Structures are given as structure tokens and as C-alpha cells.
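== Item description ==
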Amino acid sequence: MFAVDHVSHKFDDIIQHKIDQKTKPKGALGQLETLAKQIAQVQLSSDPKAKKLHITEPGLLVFAGDHGIAQYGVSIAPSEVTSQMVANFVHGGAAVNVFCRQMGFNLEVIDAGVLAPLGLKGVTEHRLGNGTAAIHLAPAMTLEQVKQGFKAAHEVVERHVLSGCNLIALGEMGIGNTSSAAAIMAALLEFDVNTCVGRGTGIDDKTFALKKALINEALKLHRPKLASPVHVLAYLGGFEIVQMTGAILAAAEQKILVLIDGFISTAAALVAVRLHPAARDYLVFAHESEEQGHKLMLTHLAAQPILSLGLRLGEGTGAALALPIVQAAVNFYNDMASFEDAGVVNVV
């Protein structure tokens, strides 16, 4: 469904030379230099005549979906909180709203499949169902629903690109979705559940043990059928994770940057890269969350996150907070003087 090309490396030497000739010691801007080079690779691949980098009309997409496993006590909150938080997004009261207003993100909230239709003005309805099935008892969804989710996400990203957006950030809301993300991680990386499962929003020891047990049951039940990343999504995923995966692939197909948030978004990125390895070229990882397993997924994806703030909220909050750093990388690449410009000589 997606055609994703690797970025071109034709201009790598030119890009690196430009970075190295800025008025600073080589490498002195650290990770900003790596980030600037990645952004340049992405943007020069799509527009080789471009002389400057740019971030235009950045869009943050928050996908919401409910999880059947949440009904079995794996979270501190009931599934109804998902819908309540979506209403909070619409009314502008959540952390992600605050940060999007500050950072200049265009926020869109997508109902990928919460428990019941919300009918809220300001919510894009791309529902795949009334929440997924409990993954320890049945497949989360059908393969057809995965396909529908990919198509819906493609439509959202295409609309943003047509409005001038060249950076998509991802967020999510869904009680129980750390269970689904941990199951996806365990299935794709073949890690032990104890390595993948964290405490989500702060569950106690009893709930933590139950969460690990149910995810083990899910993996045992479905493992013989996990023949591909798409099957992993169908059997273990969430409606919001499916659409985030589709959004990543759609953005990579359009050759624009994708700013990945935390644990849930990174699980979607893991699936996307397994489906189309070239998609990795377009991914910028916003932060390392407190959720157990996130660091291991980042390591597997050879990702160096921009921030480490102890975040464990989701919603795309980390992605929103990382945008100024992305813009700083763009601005130093564009506007910082070179040694020649500044008349600085005798610098090795």
C-alpha cells in the first residue's frame, strides 16, 4: 500500500562540509549536527535544488483508541477515561494542547476506535471499531481493519501535506495501550515479557504482575500466527497503533520528517520499519520515556532521542516539546556563518 524510498546520500559530502565549516569546532554542536544532517538528507532528497532547510505547518496527530485488555485491570484507570481525555483535547485543556499552542503545532485529534462514537466537533472520525478485543483472549482486530487503518492514516497525512506540512508528529491516547505496545515489542524483538512490560501510568505491584501475565497469555495464544508485522498488529495491536503505523509510512512515502513521541509511538515505528526499512530514514525520536522497554526499542532502531525528561504521559507531549530543538538544527544549518563568511582563518 505504501511506496517508501530511502533518502538519497548523493549530497552527504556537501551537507557535512557545510556543517563542518560553520564557525565552531567540528562536532561542537553535538546531536544538533546529526539532526541537521538527517533533516538535510530528507529535504534535499525531495528537493535537490533547495538551498535552505525549513519546517512548515508542523502537524501533531493524536490517535485515540480503546483496548479490550483494559477491562481486565491492567491500568490505573478505566477505558472510559480515553473518551474523557479526547474531550479534554478538543476543549484545549490537556498537556499536549498547552505545548502545541506554545510550539506552533497544528493539532488534530483522530478517533481511531474508542469505546463508543463521540460525536465531538473537532475530532476526526476514522473508527475501526468500538475498541479492540482483549488480546489475551482473541485477536485484537482483523487484517481488514489493519488495512482500513492504514488507508485512514494515509488520508490524514496526505491532507496535512497538501496544506504545506513537512513534519508530522505522533501522539496517542488509549487506556491499556502500553500492554499492546509491550506485546508488539516482545513479538517483534523476541524479548522476554519481563523486559518489555512497564508500569504504564503508575500501576502497583499486583496490577503489574497481572499485566505481565495477560501479555504472556496473549503471546502464547497468538505466537504461531504472527507471520508478519501486519499480523502482529492484527493480533496484538490497537486501533491507534495501527493508524500511527500507517501515518509513519504515509509520511515517509511523502518524504517528510516524522517526529516520534514515546513508548507507544515507538512501537508503531518498530512495526513501520519492519514493513518498510527505508521509513527509518525519516524518523526523528523526540525523547526517551520512563516506560520500561522504551530504551531497548530505541537502541534496536539505532535512535538517539532528543530529550530525556522522565516523561510518561503520552499524548505526543514529548514530540511537541522536541520541536524547538528540531527548529534549532534547521536554523543553525541555514543561518550560522561559515568560517569564510566570518573571515575566520587558520582554523583546522
Summary: The mean pLDDT is 96. The longest helix spans residues 143-162. The longest strand covers residues 106-113.
